[in-house]
Amino acid sequence: MKILIVGVGYVGLVTGLCLSEFGYQIIFVDKNKEKLDNLKKSKCPFYEPGIDQLLDKHLNETKRINFSSNLSNSMKNIDIVFISVGTPSRRLEDEADLTSVFEVSKEIASNINNYCVIVTKSTVPVGTTRKIKEIISQQINKNKFDVVSNPEFLREGSAINDFMRPDRVIIGTESKKSEEVMKEIYRPLFLKETPIISTSIETAEIIKYASNSFLATKIAFINEVADLCEVSGANVQDVAKAMGLDRRIGSKFLNAGPGYGGSCFPKDVKAFSSTALKAGIKLSIVDAVNNSNKLRPIKIANKISNYYNNELKNVVLTLLGLSFKPNTDDIRDSTSIIIAKELINRGAIVNAYDPKAKYNAQKEINEIKYFDSAYEACYQSNGLIIATEWNEFRGLDLNKIKKILVKPVIFDLRNIYSKKETNLLGIEYFGIGS
Ligand code: UDX
Ligand code: UDX
Questions:
Q1: Which of the listed residues 33, 36, 81, 84 should we mutate to test ligand 1's pocket, taking the one with most ligand atoms within 8 A of CB?
Q2: Is the CB of 325 inside a 6 Å radius of any atom of ligand 2?
Q3: What is the CATH number of domain 214-430?
Q4: pLDDT by residue (tens digit) across 359-400?
Q5: What is the whole-number distance in angstroms between the Cα of residue 369 and the centre of ligand 1?
């Protein structure tokens, strides 16, 4: 089978490379020519562990992949098209921007010449896949194509593993024929006993939003419990650990921190709520999660500012970690960036270091002073903020940090260290939820 992937972002590229691992011929199509030129030179446009090796293997060894900026010319004899173009939040609104999805659908429709399955891989509000069917039906007879919803559950930083060892594969179809096609391409996973859930299109679309919104709810929940722990002399990590031992709750996604960020949770929580509201349903819990999380990075910046009696003018502070999570260079909706901007707006000078996200951060925010190591960023600084839990921040030489900080204080937003071990070294310590 020949597969075409439209939108070569974090999701499209990982999906296509993993499918080429299964032996399929893949054509990647993207409108960003610079991105395609780099990919043709085996240069991945973003950091994702393991992706460089897969790209190089299937570009230069198996030669199963090709890149093109021309969707129309690439549609010949294609059996499956994955739509994985961006569906960001609309500016100043909560709704998902589906402009690209619908534009791409129209172009696909103009070039279908044999039976073809069109798959929405991008996270799209319930009802979108059916709208894509209507768009295509205006040009193509209904028996020459089917639409499918096949949402992804890839986490940045572990996307390849999440594709190859998913908890489940969700296939939303309305015909046996398209269901069979999808089961065929995921057969390698099926053989590994991965549950393949076949359901309706709308159910598949809601599964994605409900899953992401529930994960976001767990995070927002434990973050508010952390606030209570701080004023009660309790420890949120012990609370979370004990909660997680209840198999009905589960231990994952109960790490208290500065709030959730990234290109998915913030936009998916907002889109879930706005889509439901348009259907007359108010998702009050999802709304509460969104409101709670939006305030959280500001609350954290306030807490740090209060420590300095809200006199941050020209106070140098060090921020370790700019990406929204470790093992990625993605800074989209990063709480680290939000906190840095808040502190700068209050007059602070922010020194920062991040193992991978410096380049992306420099494109977005130039008031930060960027350094190439954690220790350089700490020189002459009045406080250290650990904002993203990169592994290399777990083994810092705290004695050295204490010597080079002007003021030996750590705001550990990811609870990497403990009050006990830092206080023993004469470092003042503020964690989350303790
Ligand atoms: C995307 C969606 O944003 C997200 O909602 C969904 O869950 C998964 O797919 P991501 O891969 O992170 O997530 O998107 P992004 O990194 O923004 O890549 C989208 C790609 O689509 C970009 O390379 C962009 O150039 C391309 N694109 C966008 C097109 O090729 N054509 C378009 O019309 C629009
Ligand atoms: C998420 C979903 O996990 C994934 O299934 C979906 O396909 C895309 O969105 P991603 O956004 O890449 O993946 O990262 P994730 O690891 O989920 O973290 C999201 C945010 O939540 C990050 O800002 C992270 O710091 C935060 N987080 C996560 C917490 O604050 N606490 C936790 O316990 C877990």
A1: 84
A2: yes
A3: 3.40.50.720
A4: 999 999 999 999 999 999 999 999 999 999 999 999 999 999
A5: 30
Q: Tell me, rounded to whole angstroms, the distance of Cα 326 from its chain centroid.
A: 11
Please answer whether residues 53 and 22 qualify as being in contact, where contact means their C-beta atoms are separated by less than 8 angstroms: no
Exposure string for 222-244, b = 16+ CB within 10 A, e = fewer: bbbbbbebbeeeebbbebbeebe
Å from CA of 101 to ligand 1 middle: 9
Domain(s) labelled CATH 3.40.50.720 in the chain stretch across: 2-199, 214-430
DSSP single-letter state for residue 174: S
Q: Are 108 and 75 in contact (CB under 8 A)?
A: yes
pLDDT, tens digit, for every residue of 175-194?
999 999 999 999 999 888 89
Q: Over 80: is that where the pLDDT of 93 sits? A: no
CA of 30 from ligand 1 middle (Å) equals 9
Give the model confidence (pLDDT) of 34-59 as tens digits: 999 999 999 999 999 999 999 999 99
Q: Which two tokens stand for residue 378?
A: 């700490």
pLDDT for 96 equals 87
Amino acid at residue number 409: V
The superfamily (CATH) of domain 2-199 is NAD(P)-binding Rossmann-like Domain (3.40.50.720)
Of all atoms in ligand 2, which is nearest to the CA of residue 257?
30
What is the DSSP secondary-structure string of 203-220? HHHHHHHHHHHHHHHHHH
User: Can you point out the beta strands (E) in 7-155?
Assistant: 25-29, 65-68, 80-83, 116-120, 145-149
Q: Could you tell me if the CB of 163 is within 6 A of ligand 2? A: no
Catalytic residue (choose from 18, 116, 264, 378): 264
Active site residue 264: yes
**Is residue 153 within 6 Å of ligand 2 at its C-beta?**
yes
The burial class, CB within 10 Å (0-12 / 13-18 / 19+), for 66 is middle
Centre of ligand 2 to C-alpha 300, Å, is 19
Verdict on whether the full-model pTM lies above 0.70: yes
